[in-house]
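Please check this chain.
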Amino acid sequence: MIYRSLLRPLLFRLPPESVHEWVLHALPLTTGTRTIRNLIAKRNQRSPFGELKRFGLTFSNPVGLAAGFDKNGIALEALAALGFGHLEAGTVTYQSQPGNPKPRLFRLPEDQALINRAGFNNDGAEAFAARVGKQRPDCILGVSIGKSKAAPLADAVTDYLKSFTTVFPVADYVAVNVSSPNTPGLRDLQQANELAALLKALQQKNEELAQAHTKLLTPNRSAGQPVPLLVKLAPDLKLEELERIVEVIGRTNIAGLIATNTTIERNGLRSSRQVVEAAGAGGLSGAPLRHRSTEMIATLYRLTGGALPLIGVGGIFTAADAWEKICAGASLIQVYTGFIYQGPNVAREINEGLEEILSGAGFGHFDEAIGSQAGA
Protein backbone atom coordinates (compact mmCIF):
# COMPACT_ATOMS: atom_id res chain seq x y z
CA MET A 1 0.00 0.00 0.00
CA ILE A 2 1.26 3.47 -0.91
CA TYR A 3 0.72 4.88 2.58
CA ARG A 4 2.78 2.27 4.41
CA SER A 5 5.52 1.95 1.77
CA LEU A 6 5.93 5.59 0.77
CA LEU A 7 3.95 8.17 2.73
CA ARG A 8 4.46 6.84 6.26
CA PRO A 9 8.27 6.84 6.08
CA LEU A 10 8.13 10.46 4.94
CA LEU A 11 5.59 11.55 7.53
CA PHE A 12 7.43 9.76 10.34
CA ARG A 13 10.43 12.02 9.71
CA LEU A 14 8.33 14.96 10.89
CA PRO A 15 7.20 15.81 14.45
CA PRO A 16 4.16 13.65 15.30
CA GLU A 17 1.86 16.44 16.44
CA SER A 18 2.71 18.60 13.43
CA VAL A 19 1.69 15.75 11.12
CA HIS A 20 -1.47 15.17 13.15
CA GLU A 21 -2.55 18.79 12.89
CA TRP A 22 -1.75 18.95 9.18
CA VAL A 23 -3.83 15.84 8.47
CA LEU A 24 -6.78 17.11 10.52
CA HIS A 25 -6.89 20.40 8.67
CA ALA A 26 -6.27 18.82 5.26
CA LEU A 27 -9.01 16.20 5.54
CA PRO A 28 -11.97 18.65 5.41
CA LEU A 29 -10.60 20.03 2.13
CA THR A 30 -11.17 16.60 0.53
CA THR A 31 -14.90 16.27 1.28
CA GLY A 32 -15.91 17.76 -2.06
CA THR A 33 -13.57 15.65 -4.19
CA ARG A 34 -14.75 12.83 -6.43
CA THR A 35 -12.66 10.31 -4.46
CA ILE A 36 -14.36 11.17 -1.18
CA ARG A 37 -17.81 11.24 -2.81
CA ASN A 38 -17.12 7.73 -4.16
CA LEU A 39 -15.97 6.58 -0.72
CA ILE A 40 -19.16 7.94 0.84
CA ALA A 41 -21.29 6.16 -1.77
CA LYS A 42 -19.41 2.91 -1.17
CA ARG A 43 -19.69 3.33 2.59
CA ASN A 44 -23.48 3.74 2.34
CA GLN A 45 -23.91 0.37 0.65
CA ARG A 46 -25.49 -2.40 2.72
CA SER A 47 -23.22 -3.60 5.52
CA PRO A 48 -22.13 -7.26 5.31
CA PHE A 49 -22.70 -7.42 9.08
CA GLY A 50 -26.35 -6.39 8.89
CA GLU A 51 -27.63 -3.85 11.38
CA LEU A 52 -25.60 -3.86 14.57
CA LYS A 53 -27.82 -2.72 17.43
CA ARG A 54 -25.87 -1.30 20.37
CA PHE A 55 -27.33 0.66 23.30
CA GLY A 56 -30.28 1.86 21.24
CA LEU A 57 -28.21 2.88 18.20
CA THR A 58 -27.69 1.19 14.84
CA PHE A 59 -24.10 0.85 13.60
CA SER A 60 -23.29 0.08 9.96
CA ASN A 61 -20.13 -1.78 10.92
CA PRO A 62 -18.19 -2.52 14.14
CA VAL A 63 -15.08 -0.42 13.46
CA GLY A 64 -14.81 3.03 15.01
CA LEU A 65 -12.19 5.73 15.47
CA ALA A 66 -11.23 6.26 19.11
CA ALA A 67 -11.31 9.57 20.94
CA GLY A 68 -8.21 11.72 20.74
CA PHE A 69 -7.78 11.92 16.98
CA ASP A 70 -10.32 14.71 16.29
CA LYS A 71 -10.81 16.52 19.57
CA ASN A 72 -12.54 19.56 18.09
CA GLY A 73 -14.76 17.90 15.48
CA ILE A 74 -13.15 19.59 12.49
CA ALA A 75 -12.72 16.59 10.16
CA LEU A 76 -15.61 14.29 11.05
CA GLU A 77 -17.27 14.19 7.62
CA ALA A 78 -14.06 13.14 5.87
CA LEU A 79 -13.19 10.62 8.58
CA ALA A 80 -16.62 9.00 8.26
CA ALA A 81 -16.03 8.58 4.52
CA LEU A 82 -13.02 6.38 5.28
CA GLY A 83 -15.34 3.58 6.32
CA PHE A 84 -15.72 3.97 10.07
CA GLY A 85 -19.04 2.86 11.52
CA HIS A 86 -18.68 5.38 14.31
CA LEU A 87 -16.41 8.18 15.39
CA GLU A 88 -15.67 9.17 18.96
CA ALA A 89 -14.71 12.83 19.02
CA GLY A 90 -12.99 14.65 21.86
CA THR A 91 -12.05 14.37 24.61
CA VAL A 92 -13.95 17.64 25.11
CA THR A 93 -13.75 19.70 28.30
CA TYR A 94 -16.10 22.47 29.33
CA GLN A 95 -13.30 25.03 29.44
CA SER A 96 -11.09 25.47 26.40
CA GLN A 97 -7.51 24.57 27.27
CA PRO A 98 -4.14 24.34 25.51
CA GLY A 99 -3.15 21.03 27.06
CA ASN A 100 0.30 20.13 28.31
CA PRO A 101 3.52 21.72 27.02
CA LYS A 102 4.91 20.45 23.72
CA PRO A 103 6.40 18.10 22.68
CA ARG A 104 3.72 15.75 24.01
CA LEU A 105 3.30 13.08 21.31
CA PHE A 106 5.99 10.51 20.53
CA ARG A 107 6.30 7.53 18.21
CA LEU A 108 7.88 4.19 19.13
CA PRO A 109 8.09 2.57 15.66
CA GLU A 110 9.86 -0.55 16.89
CA ASP A 111 6.85 -1.24 19.11
CA GLN A 112 4.16 0.11 16.75
CA ALA A 113 3.22 2.39 19.62
CA LEU A 114 2.67 5.99 20.65
CA ILE A 115 3.21 7.85 23.91
CA ASN A 116 1.09 10.93 24.46
CA ARG A 117 0.57 13.38 27.27
CA ALA A 118 -1.57 15.89 25.36
CA GLY A 119 -3.76 16.74 28.35
CA PHE A 120 -7.16 17.26 26.68
CA ASN A 121 -6.10 20.14 24.43
CA ASN A 122 -9.36 21.38 22.87
CA ASP A 123 -11.46 24.45 22.07
CA GLY A 124 -14.07 23.70 24.72
CA ALA A 125 -17.51 22.09 24.70
CA GLU A 126 -19.43 25.10 23.38
CA ALA A 127 -17.18 25.55 20.34
CA PHE A 128 -17.33 21.81 19.65
CA ALA A 129 -21.13 21.63 19.83
CA ALA A 130 -21.54 24.67 17.59
CA ARG A 131 -19.21 23.21 14.96
CA VAL A 132 -20.76 19.73 14.96
CA GLY A 133 -24.28 21.15 14.95
CA LYS A 134 -23.58 22.68 11.56
CA GLN A 135 -21.75 19.76 9.98
CA ARG A 136 -22.36 16.20 11.16
CA PRO A 137 -20.61 13.01 10.00
CA ASP A 138 -22.58 10.35 8.18
CA CYS A 139 -22.18 7.77 10.94
CA ILE A 140 -22.73 7.34 14.67
CA LEU A 141 -21.00 10.12 16.62
CA GLY A 142 -19.82 9.56 20.16
CA VAL A 143 -18.50 12.46 22.21
CA SER A 144 -15.91 11.88 24.91
CA ILE A 145 -16.05 14.33 27.82
CA GLY A 146 -13.41 14.92 30.49
CA LYS A 147 -12.61 17.21 33.39
CA SER A 148 -11.20 20.67 32.69
CA LYS A 149 -7.69 20.87 34.14
CA ALA A 150 -8.50 24.16 35.87
CA ALA A 151 -11.47 22.62 37.70
CA PRO A 152 -10.49 21.24 41.13
CA LEU A 153 -11.18 17.56 41.64
CA ALA A 154 -13.80 18.54 44.21
CA ASP A 155 -15.69 20.36 41.43
CA ALA A 156 -15.33 17.57 38.87
CA VAL A 157 -19.02 16.62 38.87
CA THR A 158 -20.11 20.19 38.17
CA ASP A 159 -17.55 20.50 35.39
CA TYR A 160 -18.62 17.23 33.73
CA LEU A 161 -22.28 18.27 33.96
CA LYS A 162 -21.55 21.49 32.08
CA SER A 163 -19.81 19.61 29.25
CA PHE A 164 -22.54 16.97 29.16
CA THR A 165 -25.29 19.56 28.94
CA THR A 166 -23.50 21.34 26.11
CA VAL A 167 -22.86 18.30 23.89
CA PHE A 168 -26.16 16.52 24.64
CA PRO A 169 -28.02 17.77 21.51
CA VAL A 170 -25.26 16.71 19.07
CA ALA A 171 -24.04 13.40 20.53
CA ASP A 172 -25.35 9.95 19.63
CA TYR A 173 -23.65 8.66 22.77
CA VAL A 174 -21.44 10.25 25.41
CA ALA A 175 -18.30 8.60 26.75
CA VAL A 176 -17.24 9.66 30.24
CA ASN A 177 -13.45 9.73 30.26
CA VAL A 178 -12.19 9.15 33.80
CA SER A 179 -9.11 7.23 32.73
CA SER A 180 -6.67 9.52 30.93
CA PRO A 181 -3.32 9.56 32.74
CA ASN A 182 -2.57 13.09 31.51
CA THR A 183 -4.91 15.18 33.70
CA PRO A 184 -3.75 15.22 37.34
CA GLY A 185 -6.07 13.27 39.64
CA LEU A 186 -8.47 12.22 36.88
CA ARG A 187 -8.04 8.49 37.42
CA ASP A 188 -9.12 8.95 41.04
CA LEU A 189 -12.63 9.29 39.62
CA GLN A 190 -12.54 5.56 38.79
CA GLN A 191 -12.76 4.81 42.52
CA ALA A 192 -16.17 3.38 43.32
CA ASN A 193 -17.56 6.19 45.50
CA GLU A 194 -16.34 8.99 43.24
CA LEU A 195 -17.50 7.20 40.09
CA ALA A 196 -20.93 6.49 41.57
CA ALA A 197 -21.44 10.15 42.50
CA LEU A 198 -20.38 11.34 39.03
CA LEU A 199 -22.51 8.84 37.10
CA LYS A 200 -25.57 9.36 39.30
CA ALA A 201 -25.39 13.12 38.69
CA LEU A 202 -24.89 12.64 34.95
CA GLN A 203 -27.85 10.26 34.67
CA GLN A 204 -30.09 12.65 36.58
CA LYS A 205 -29.09 15.46 34.23
CA ASN A 206 -29.57 13.04 31.32
CA GLU A 207 -33.24 12.52 32.24
CA GLU A 208 -33.79 16.26 32.69
CA LEU A 209 -32.24 17.10 29.32
CA ALA A 210 -34.21 14.37 27.57
CA GLN A 211 -37.45 16.00 28.71
CA ALA A 212 -36.26 19.51 27.90
CA HIS A 213 -34.88 18.88 24.40
CA THR A 214 -37.72 18.49 21.92
CA LYS A 215 -35.31 18.82 18.99
CA LEU A 216 -31.93 17.17 18.61
CA LEU A 217 -29.18 17.94 16.11
CA THR A 218 -28.64 14.25 15.34
CA PRO A 219 -30.87 11.98 13.24
CA ASN A 220 -29.76 8.88 15.15
CA ARG A 221 -31.55 9.58 18.45
CA SER A 222 -35.18 10.26 19.30
CA ALA A 223 -36.20 13.41 21.15
CA GLY A 224 -37.34 12.73 24.68
CA GLN A 225 -34.86 9.87 25.16
CA PRO A 226 -31.71 10.04 27.32
CA VAL A 227 -28.40 9.77 25.51
CA PRO A 228 -26.52 6.46 26.03
CA LEU A 229 -23.78 7.00 28.61
CA LEU A 230 -20.59 4.94 28.41
CA VAL A 231 -17.53 4.93 30.67
CA LYS A 232 -13.94 4.60 29.44
CA LEU A 233 -11.63 2.68 31.76
CA ALA A 234 -7.86 2.44 32.24
CA PRO A 235 -6.05 -0.84 31.52
CA ASP A 236 -4.10 -0.53 34.77
CA LEU A 237 -7.03 -1.37 37.06
CA LYS A 238 -6.88 -4.46 39.25
CA LEU A 239 -9.58 -7.15 39.32
CA GLU A 240 -11.08 -5.96 42.61
CA GLU A 241 -11.33 -2.43 41.22
CA LEU A 242 -13.09 -3.71 38.11
CA GLU A 243 -15.53 -5.66 40.27
CA ARG A 244 -16.45 -2.50 42.20
CA ILE A 245 -16.77 -0.50 38.96
CA VAL A 246 -19.09 -3.10 37.43
CA GLU A 247 -21.26 -2.91 40.54
CA VAL A 248 -21.45 0.90 40.20
CA ILE A 249 -22.21 0.59 36.49
CA GLY A 250 -25.12 -1.69 37.25
CA ARG A 251 -26.58 0.71 39.82
CA THR A 252 -26.33 3.75 37.57
CA ASN A 253 -27.79 2.22 34.39
CA ILE A 254 -24.71 2.89 32.26
CA ALA A 255 -25.16 1.77 28.62
CA GLY A 256 -21.68 0.37 28.01
CA LEU A 257 -17.97 0.35 28.81
CA ILE A 258 -14.94 1.26 26.69
CA ALA A 259 -11.85 -0.83 27.38
CA THR A 260 -9.28 0.52 27.37
CA ASN A 261 -7.56 3.87 27.53
CA THR A 262 -3.76 4.16 27.37
CA THR A 263 -1.46 2.59 29.95
CA ILE A 264 1.22 4.12 32.14
CA GLU A 265 3.16 0.84 32.11
CA ARG A 266 6.33 0.46 30.01
CA ASN A 267 6.94 -3.28 30.36
CA GLY A 268 8.24 -5.44 27.51
CA LEU A 269 8.99 -2.68 25.01
CA ARG A 270 11.43 -3.29 22.17
CA SER A 271 12.46 0.34 21.93
CA SER A 272 15.63 1.24 23.78
CA ARG A 273 15.45 2.59 27.31
CA GLN A 274 16.93 5.86 26.06
CA VAL A 275 14.14 6.32 23.51
CA VAL A 276 11.41 5.49 26.04
CA GLU A 277 12.88 7.70 28.76
CA ALA A 278 13.32 10.56 26.29
CA ALA A 279 9.59 10.43 25.55
CA GLY A 280 8.86 10.71 29.25
CA ALA A 281 5.52 10.46 31.02
CA GLY A 282 2.21 9.85 29.28
CA GLY A 283 -0.13 7.15 28.08
CA LEU A 284 1.23 4.32 25.95
CA SER A 285 -1.00 3.04 23.12
CA GLY A 286 -0.64 0.62 20.26
CA ALA A 287 0.61 -2.96 19.93
CA PRO A 288 2.07 -3.25 23.47
CA LEU A 289 -1.42 -2.67 24.88
CA ARG A 290 -3.11 -5.36 22.74
CA HIS A 291 -2.94 -8.32 25.11
CA ARG A 292 -3.76 -6.37 28.26
CA SER A 293 -6.82 -4.69 26.76
CA THR A 294 -8.10 -8.02 25.40
CA GLU A 295 -7.70 -9.63 28.82
CA MET A 296 -9.62 -6.79 30.42
CA ILE A 297 -12.44 -7.06 27.86
CA ALA A 298 -12.80 -10.78 28.63
CA THR A 299 -12.83 -10.01 32.37
CA LEU A 300 -15.51 -7.34 31.98
CA TYR A 301 -17.56 -9.64 29.74
CA ARG A 302 -17.51 -12.31 32.44
CA LEU A 303 -18.23 -9.85 35.26
CA THR A 304 -21.25 -8.44 33.41
CA GLY A 305 -22.48 -11.80 32.16
CA GLY A 306 -22.21 -10.52 28.61
CA ALA A 307 -25.18 -8.22 29.23
CA LEU A 308 -23.33 -4.92 28.79
CA PRO A 309 -21.98 -3.74 25.41
CA LEU A 310 -18.20 -3.35 25.44
CA ILE A 311 -16.14 -1.29 23.01
CA GLY A 312 -12.69 -2.82 22.62
CA VAL A 313 -9.70 -0.51 22.13
CA GLY A 314 -5.99 -1.15 22.30
CA GLY A 315 -3.48 -2.44 19.78
CA ILE A 316 -5.87 -3.11 16.89
CA PHE A 317 -4.05 -2.97 13.57
CA THR A 318 -5.66 -5.81 11.58
CA ALA A 319 -8.88 -7.78 11.28
CA ALA A 320 -7.27 -10.58 13.31
CA ASP A 321 -6.62 -8.11 16.16
CA ALA A 322 -10.22 -6.93 15.99
CA TRP A 323 -11.57 -10.49 15.89
CA GLU A 324 -9.60 -11.32 19.03
CA LYS A 325 -11.30 -8.42 20.85
CA ILE A 326 -14.74 -9.44 19.56
CA CYS A 327 -14.33 -13.04 20.66
CA ALA A 328 -13.18 -11.76 24.06
CA GLY A 329 -16.45 -9.84 24.44
CA ALA A 330 -16.28 -6.58 22.47
CA SER A 331 -19.39 -5.78 20.46
CA LEU A 332 -17.66 -2.83 18.76
CA ILE A 333 -13.98 -1.94 18.35
CA GLN A 334 -12.02 1.28 17.93
CA VAL A 335 -8.63 2.11 16.46
CA TYR A 336 -6.30 5.05 17.03
CA THR A 337 -2.64 4.08 16.89
CA GLY A 338 -3.50 1.50 14.23
CA PHE A 339 -4.90 4.35 12.12
CA ILE A 340 -1.59 6.23 12.43
CA TYR A 341 0.53 3.21 11.48
CA GLN A 342 -1.75 1.47 8.95
CA GLY A 343 -3.14 4.54 7.20
CA PRO A 344 -6.48 5.78 5.88
CA ASN A 345 -7.68 2.39 4.61
CA VAL A 346 -7.47 0.72 8.01
CA ALA A 347 -11.23 0.73 8.72
CA ARG A 348 -12.07 -0.70 5.30
CA GLU A 349 -9.31 -3.33 5.57
CA ILE A 350 -10.45 -4.43 9.02
CA ASN A 351 -14.10 -4.61 7.97
CA GLU A 352 -13.29 -6.64 4.86
CA GLY A 353 -11.05 -8.92 6.88
CA LEU A 354 -13.71 -9.41 9.55
CA GLU A 355 -16.22 -10.36 6.88
CA GLU A 356 -13.86 -13.08 5.64
CA ILE A 357 -13.11 -14.35 9.15
CA LEU A 358 -16.79 -14.39 10.08
CA SER A 359 -17.80 -16.31 6.97
CA GLY A 360 -15.21 -18.99 7.72
CA ALA A 361 -15.81 -19.25 11.46
CA GLY A 362 -19.21 -20.91 11.32
CA PHE A 363 -21.23 -18.12 12.93
CA GLY A 364 -24.60 -17.21 11.43
CA HIS A 365 -24.38 -13.58 12.56
CA PHE A 366 -21.69 -11.24 13.81
CA ASP A 367 -23.22 -11.05 17.29
CA GLU A 368 -22.84 -14.79 17.81
CA ALA A 369 -19.06 -14.36 17.90
CA ILE A 370 -19.12 -11.80 20.72
CA GLY A 371 -17.59 -13.31 23.86
CA SER A 372 -17.26 -16.75 22.26
CA GLN A 373 -13.74 -17.08 23.71
CA ALA A 374 -14.14 -15.04 26.89
CA GLY A 375 -13.81 -18.14 29.05
CA ALA A 376 -15.75 -19.20 32.08
Summary: The chain has 14 helices and 13 strands. Residues 94 and 271 are 37 Å apart (CA to CA).
